Amino acid sequence: METNNFKYVQSEEISSTLSKTFIANVFSWMAAALVITSVVAYYFGVDKELMSYLRTTDIRGHFHYTGLGIIVAISPLAIIFGMGYGMRKWSYAAVLGLFLLFGALMGASLSYIFQMYTHASIFTVFLSAAGMFGLMSVVGYTTKTDLTSFGSIMMMGLFGIVIASLINMFVGSGTLNYIISFIGVLVFVGLTAYDVQKLKRIGAGLEYGTEETKKLVLWGALDLYLDFINLFMFLLRLFGDRK
Question: What is the DSSP string of 204-218?
């Protein structure tokens, strides 16, 4: 009996170590993607010549996407589907290349925020988003409560946001936009905790060092990256100071 208990404890320790290693790698790659996004967004956002390749301004001051701008805007979504398709079929190097390209294209597509909001407010909101994201990551990693049902509710909320946003594209309601942004913050705060717990459990059951595990690390990093970016953008819509 003592021997079996020892094996069980040892197995739990190994599982915990694997989970911590997996999560650490996930956050490392997520941070790398955010750095790439931030650098690209800044340089496109402050350089009028670079920005002119993506967006133009008419005589009334309204922005319009160029052909390249439209491609850049929709490419990240295509890459997400591509990574999902290639997880089993493509090599780790190919998936990594797509992941890094995704970070760069997201930076270019989000660069417009430097024309709409003051730099100070972008920086402040980014720090606020980082603080909220970090707090909920700790909650998701340490809580003993199963967040599966909670995650399902958050996903329903996400679908609701998408539908409401599509409707508001035609309605153009400022009030609805505010409500969507507020709910969006709540949804992605919740999804952060849920996704971290989900990734913790996935990491505990993986064999460390395999190519499959490395690709799952990138997929997990993409998952958390999207949580953070959406949280940041909804906070910016609520609290960002427009120029």
Answer: HTSPTTSHHHHHHHH
